[in-house]
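Input record, target 12 of the design panel.
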């Protein structure tokens, strides 16, 4: 069994959706096709929700009308026959009636989550109908019937697997099963989601749940690049990465993968292949257990980091001190990304500021607190990178005079992380690209 996920741009126009249908039909064997919403849709649904939260009904109505027009056009250009044009209209009318119903009621977080789910529900229904029109046999596998998260918003892999396996077995006759990325149910059985970009995570969770042979993530670029192609010019695709390397890159900001994508796949050693929908002949990237040793593979950057320094000359060396500091973060469900210590201070970084006020109040008991916002973690990844001779010298020479606030080295052999101020990011990524990949 293969799990094949297509992102928003891959299904972003009727022509592209047609191409995805051709691609999927050409791949042999049984497969579960995971689709994102048509590109731009989730952003618009977020905008609509924000307008409704701010009581801007007119703005919301305008956005809803425009989105509906977009789908009417999409339907006109996707389907060929009048029967399917009518079906397209029905699909649109059903979802937009619900959207308008949500907009008319008391709009709360729950309505927002239901609103956000409409994108994936629309794209999969269109795709399913289109395959039918082309006489390609397929069945829907509704994500809301099997994909779930617990009270801590963590996916329930075992339960997902228990629900999914009999479902798939009962549909044995069908080679193509279609499901929605991103959406799920939470512990209250309400509609929820796996956070922005979550369709990659859906694919990986399904892959792990059914012990797929491979998980394929099809997107708009020819694999994981060695640096952020939106910021750096001369980037290139990487042929192979280990799970650990890919996991670090995804977690530390490589947008091509949702931060948690690799975790379920790695648990069952299921290879993850990144492919380009716009250039299917390109080799892409294969993520698996093996890779080249001692090589710098790639750089990623994660923004919106907050650094917290706790200074305490009295207590830092006392045993149990770090534990008590970490307990504060644990209590507030906030995870720490980087940490560095000196004799008088300990610095940590977090990417989730929601409990920052409470955390800093509690940390004040231990000493003086300094908080710096607008920081970026630059993460340099490679297999057994720490064994590579002169790697730190190379990195710091490349960075020149860019001030580095924290360094993390040795935590794992795959990763060296640096903390810099966000306005320096573009320059730092470019300098590192020149120094680590372009210099001969
Ligand atoms: P999809 O809609 O298919 O999920 P995304 O926009 O989420 O696609 O991810 C693909 C985009 O990720 C690329 O177009 C590229 O701009 C961006 N990206 C950021 N960092 C990297 C990287 N290291 N390698 C490849 N793409 C990257
Ligand atoms: N449609 C969702 C988003 O835009 C999920 C995804 O595309 O992966 O975030
Ligand atoms: Mg994505």
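The sequence produced for target 12 reads:
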């Amino acid at each position: 069994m293969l799990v094949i996920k297509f992102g928003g741009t891959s299904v972003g126009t009727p022509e592209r959706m047609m191409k995805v249908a051709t691609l999927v039909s050409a791949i042999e064997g049984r497969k579960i096709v995971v689709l994102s919403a048509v590109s731009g849709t989730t952003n618009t649904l977020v905008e609509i929700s924000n307008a409704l939260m701010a009581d801007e009904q007119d703005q919301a109505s305008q956005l809803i009308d425009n989105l509906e027009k977009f789908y009417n056009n999409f339907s006109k250009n996707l389907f060929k026959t009048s029967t399917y044009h009518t079906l397209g209209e029905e699909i649109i009318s059903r979802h937009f009636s619900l959207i308008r119903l949500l907009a008319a009621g008391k709009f709360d977080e729950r309505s927002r989550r239901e609103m956000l789910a409409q994108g994936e529900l629309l794209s999969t229904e269109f795709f399913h109908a289109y395959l039918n029109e082309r006489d390609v046999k397929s069945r829907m596998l509704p994500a809301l019937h099997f994909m779930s998260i617990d009270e801590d918003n963590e996916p329930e892999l075992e339960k997902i697997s228990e629900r999914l396996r009999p479902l798939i077995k009962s549909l044995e006759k069908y080679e193509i099963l279609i499901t929605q990325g991103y959406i799920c149910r939470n512990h209250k059985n309400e509609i929820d989601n796996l956070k922005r970009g979550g369709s990659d995570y859906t694919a990986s969770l399904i892959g792990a749940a059914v012990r797929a042979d491979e998980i394929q993530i099809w997107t708009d670029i020819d694999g994981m690049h060695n640096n952020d192609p939106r910021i750096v010019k001369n980037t290139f695709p990487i042929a192979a990465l280990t799970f650990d390397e890919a996991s670090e890159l995804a977690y530390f900001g490589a947008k091509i993968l949702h931060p948690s994508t690799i975790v379920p796949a790695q648990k069952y050693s299921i290879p993850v292949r990144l492919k380009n929908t716009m250039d299917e002949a390109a080799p892409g990237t294969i993520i698996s257990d093996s890779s080249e040793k001692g090589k710098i593979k790639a750089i990623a950057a994660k923004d919106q980091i907050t650094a917290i320094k706790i200074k305490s000359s009295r207590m830092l060396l006392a045993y149990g001190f770090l534990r008590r500091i970490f307990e504060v973060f644990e209590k507030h469900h906030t995870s720490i990304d980087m940490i560095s210590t000196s004799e008088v201070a300990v610095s940590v970084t977090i990417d989730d500021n929601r409990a920052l006020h409470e955390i800093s109040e509690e940390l004040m008991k231990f000493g003086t607190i300094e908080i710096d916002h607008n920081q970026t973690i630059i993460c340099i990844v490679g297999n057994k990178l720490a064994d590579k001779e002169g790697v730190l010298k190379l990195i710091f020479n490349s960075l020149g005079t860019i001030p580095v606030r924290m360094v993390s080295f040795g935590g794992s052999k795959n990763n060296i992380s640096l903390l810099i101020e966000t306005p320096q990011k573009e320059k730092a990524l470019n300098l590192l690209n020149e120094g680590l990949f372009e210099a001969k």
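The CA atoms of residues 402 and 428 lie 7 Å apart.
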